[in-house]
Amino acid sequence: MEITNGTVVSMDYALRNDEGTILDQSQPEQPLSYLHGHKNIIPGLESALEGKSAGDEVEVRVSPEDGYGEKNPALEQAVPIDRFQGIDNIEVGMQFQASTDQGPVSVRVVKVEDDQVTVDGNHPLAGEHLNFKVTVKDVRTASEEELAHGHVHQSDGCCGGGEDKSGGCGC
Ligand code: ZN
Fold first, then answer.
1. CATH 3.10.50.40-classified regions of the chain
2. Can you give the pTM of this predicted structure?
């Protein structure tokens, strides 16, 4: 069966930057599943997989605009180190939740100077070309519940991490 809107795709994948460094990959025997056509994955990869079927191998280079967007310089800012009270060693790569007018944003420390810390609220892969190598393992029709929720459910009928508010699986 071909990948179209409303199918659940399982795939092995590896993601490299333009230097060839692996940024992310699925674990052996643990393919990633997603619901096609519901923006569960980045647009550039979703469109490259359209019409493929199990066994197909797809290699695609996704530009930032079809990936995680361009870097927004306004999301990078220097803040006084005394704002990080209670944290002894601020190091590059640490992540914090920052409260902003638009709600909480995850930021990464990108530079530490004497009394100043530069944090970046861009997605870590913003501005990167993303080189995906994908092997389609399985394509199936999504259940009505999956389509209604807009995401994949695990084989036990529910998805992990959902908060139970309704007596159902809550996701
Ligand atoms: Zn759900």
1. 7-68+126-157
2. 0.78
